[in-house]
Amino acid sequence: MPSKFNILLISCLLTSFSSFATQHFAIAIHGGAGTISPSTVSADKIKLYEAKLKQATDAGYAILERGGSSLDAVNTAVNILENSELFNAGKGAVYTFDGMHELDASIMDGRTREAGAVASVKHIKNPINLARLVMTDSVHVMLSGSGAEEFALQKGMELVPNRYFDTISRYQSLQKAKEKIRKLESASSTASAFRANYVELDNEYKMGTVGAVALDKQGNLAAATSTGGMTAKRYGRIGDSPVIGAGTWADNESCAVSATGHGEFFIRYNVAADICAKVKYQKKSIEKASNEVIFGPMHKAGGTGGVIVIDNKGNIALTYNTVGMYRASRKQGEDAKVAIFAD
Ligand code: ASP
Question: I want to staple 89 with a disulfide (CB 3.0 to 4.6 A). Which of 34, 38, 185, 226 is the partner?
Fold first, then answer.
C-alpha cells in the first residue's frame, strides 16, 4: 500500500511535470497595413473592424485553450477574416485590372517545417483551406491557377463563382486605381519613370491582407496568410503572401511570421524568414529582429507594410512601418488586445 506521503509526492511530481510540458500559448492576427488613420476610416467602420478582429482572435484562442493545434488556430482565425467583406482576402478581395479576383494564400507548420501555398486561384472560397490541403495531401508546396483548382475538386472542395468575391467598395477602388494608372502611363515618359510612380500607387491601393500566427500548448508554432493581392494587378501578378519565407514562415526553433505590405519588396527582402533567421542565429528578440527588417534596407528601398511575429515562448511583436495596421493578439490568461492605428 503506498503511504499518504508517497501519494502526495507522486501527485506533486505529476503536477510539476505537466506544468513543465505545457507552454504558454498565444495568438496574433492582422488584417493588413497601410494608410489607416482616423481620417481615412469612419468611426462606424472602426467598430466593425475591431469586432471582427476580436472574433477571429478569440476563436483561435479557444482552440489553443482546449489543447488544439496552432495550425487549427491560425486556420480558423484566417477563415473568419476571409469570410468578412472588410478584408482583402476571400469575400472582399480586391479586383485585378481585368475586373476579376485572384487569390493567394499560404500556411506553415513550425513543428515539421511543412508548408502549403496556392496562388492566383479564382474559385476557392477559403484559399487558406486549400493551402493547408496542399501541405497535408499533396507532394508539392505551391500550386497555382486552374491546376490548384483541379486539385481542390479532387479533394472534394466546392468551387464558387468568381463573382462571389465582389464588393462595391473594392470595385470603386479599382476604378480609381485604373484612372490613376492611365494618368501615370501618359505622364511617365520612360518605363523607369512609370515604375517609380507605380510604387506610390501600389502603396495607396494595398490593404486588408489577413494573417495569423500562434503557439500551442505543445510548443508548436504555425503561421498563415491569405490575400486578394493588390488592386489592379495585371499579368497574373503574385505577391509575397503565398511565398514561403517572404509572406509566411514558421519554425519551432525560432518564430512564426505573417506579413502584409507591398509584396514585391517582401519577396526581394525575404522578410518573414529573415526575421526568424535573426532570432535563430543571432539570438535576437522578435521585437529587435522585426524592427531591423521592417525599418531596415527594405524600408529604405521603398517597401512598406508590417508583420505579426510570435516566438516559441509566446512573446508577440506587431511591427509596421505604415501609418497603421489592423491587428489583435491574445496571450494565455489575458483578454484580446485589438488595435488599428499607431500606438
Ligand atoms: N502583401 C500583399 C501582396 O503584395 C498585399 C497586402 O499585404 O496588402 O499581394
Answer: 226
pTM: 0.92
State residue 40's pLDDT score.
81
Q: What's the pLDDT score for residue 198?
A: 74
Dist. CA 150 → ligand 1 center (Å): 25
**For the structural domain made of 27-170+199-341, what CATH number should be given?**
3.60.20.30
Burial class from Cβ neighbours inside 10 Å (0-12, 13-18, 19+) for residue 78 reads buried
Residue ranges of the chain with pLDDT lower than 70?
1-23, 200-206
- Burial grade of 41 (CB within 10 A; 0-12, 13-18, 19 or more): middle
Contact 110, 221 (CB under 8 A): yes
Question: Taking CB atoms and a 6 Å cutoff, what residues make up the pocket around ligand 1?
Answer: 32, 206-207, 209, 227, 229-230, 239-241, 260-261, 263
Q: How confident is the model at residue 5, as a pLDDT?
A: 54
Residue 204's pLDDT is 61
Supply the pLDDT for residue 2.
53
- The Cα–Cα gap between 319 and 279 comes to 15
Which of 78, 230, 307 most suits a substitution to test ligand 1, by most atoms within 8 Å of the C-beta? 230
